[in-house]
Amino acid sequence: MSAIRINSPTTALTLSIKHLTCNPSFPTNCRRFKRNTVAMSSAPLQVCAKSSLTVPNKLGDCPFTQRVLLTLEEKHLPYDLKLVDLGNKPDWFLSISPEGKVPVAKVDDKWIADSDVITQTVEEKFPDPSLVTPPEKASVGSKIFSTYIGFLKSKDANDGTEQALLNELSAFNDYIKENGPFINGKDISAADLSLGPKLYHMEIALGHFKKWSVPDSLPHLKTYMKTVFSLDSFIKTMPLTEDVIEGWRPKVMG
Ligand SMILES: N[C@@H](CCC(=O)N[C@@H](CS)C(=O)NCC(=O)O)C(=O)O
């Protein structure tokens, strides 16, 4: 059952904050007050996220939402999380997200949708520490997710989808070898926070549904994944393995 299945936005918000701040078994969702003193002077951001499909009151498996949460974590910004059952979307959620999609985030009293827009808005409002990826590097690895989905959904082992993914992963491996450890060199940036959750889904879903794993011939990619998946921010915001599998199952079967 979802943590929030209440139609009144006011009640839902109250319950979510109370729940998230009081439940020690829910470590990813507590308000965070770290070192961002600018953020400490304003109210916590609010983020609507997919709830777990397998465990009540737990963050679910949306890579776009994790990207937003990673951005907030890396900037040490406090936030409140409101879990939404995407299989049974409440009216209060549809009123702030007419497309019915997560993430949506409330910044400066305004709900905004889409992880691209949210992360850009957060960067502008809270520029320190900067997570800006230089424009010439911003598209590095950007085709990996779509080629991964193509391979995941493929029912024909010879349709070239695996090779298409391997080509993208190989190009990324070579890029990181020359430019790493992160896409922008020594410091993590927005492009890593977008790609990391997608690579995590790829690893779990292809491992489960195709018994496939990143080949040893791509060691720099493997090291990159290990580095990103080990970040404190990633561990705090990552989905359960079971949720990633259940989240992709309809697409694999469909
Ligand atoms: N382009 C959007 C994509 C967001 C998206 O597709 N979210 C999915 C969950 S990961 C969703 O809310 N789907 C609606 C549904 O499952 O009903 C973004 O970057 O935020």
TrEMBL record:
UniProt GO BP: acquisition of seed longevity; ascorbate glutathione cycle
TM spans (from-to): none
The protein's name in its UniProt record: Glutathione dehydrogenase (Ascorbate)
Gene: DHAR3
Domain of life: Eukaryota
Keyword entries, A-Z: Detoxification, Glutathionylation, Oxidoreductase, Transferase
Enzyme class, UniProt record, top EC level: oxidoreductase
Cited SUPFAM superfamilies: GST C-terminal domain-like (SSF47616), Thioredoxin-like (SSF52833)
InterPro entries (UniProt xref): DHAR1/2/3/4, Glutathione-S-Trfase_C-like, Glutathione-S-Trfase_C_sf, Glutathione_S-Trfase, Glutathione_S-Trfase_N, Thioredoxin-like_sf
GO molecular function: glutathione dehydrogenase (ascorbate) activity; glutathione transferase activity
Keyword Oxidoreductase set for record: yes
One Pfam family from the record: GST_C_2
Organism: Helianthus annuus (Common sunflower)
GST N-terminal domain sequence ranges: 52-130
Record domain GST C-terminal: where: 108-254
Family membership: Belongs to the GST superfamily. DHAR family.
Keyword check for Oxidoreductase: yes
Catalytic activity: L-dehydroascorbate + 2 glutathione = glutathione disulfide + L-ascorbate; RX + glutathione = an S-substituted glutathione + a halide anion + H(+)
Enzyme Commission identifier(s): 1.8.5.1
